[in-house]
Structure prediction request, 137 residues.
Amino acid sequence: MNPILRNILAVVAGFIVGSVVNMGLVNIGSSVVALPEGADISTMEGLRESMKLFAPVNFLFPFLAHALGTLVGAFVAAKLAVSHHLRFALAVGVFFLLGGIYMVYLCGGPMWFVASDLLLAYIPMGFLGGTLAGGKR
Prediction:
């Protein structure tokens, strides 16, 4: 297979696998940590309105979903890439960061969560995933 095509597919596969991990954790999160009374997360508007009801523990699974989804996706991309393993892992981190920024734009959230999520869950996890996969700088 053409190395360029394989590298592109590595990033796509990393993004897909990371998205599956992300959504899996988001979906089980409300089963593990109960939502506050009156919270409706079935629509984007409901989620935005429910943010003010959330306690800090309600942000645990969203953060884990973002961080672990990015970590696993970056790991997969770095493992599958032919070359520039760490760069492709970081590319997955950047894609997830862009998604995180978009979600902040749509939903908002407390500043402490937005800052910790955007600063810790994406690029650092992309770097860690690439490093764990044996990616070189």
Notes: The chain is about 75% helix and 0% strand. The mean pLDDT is 94.
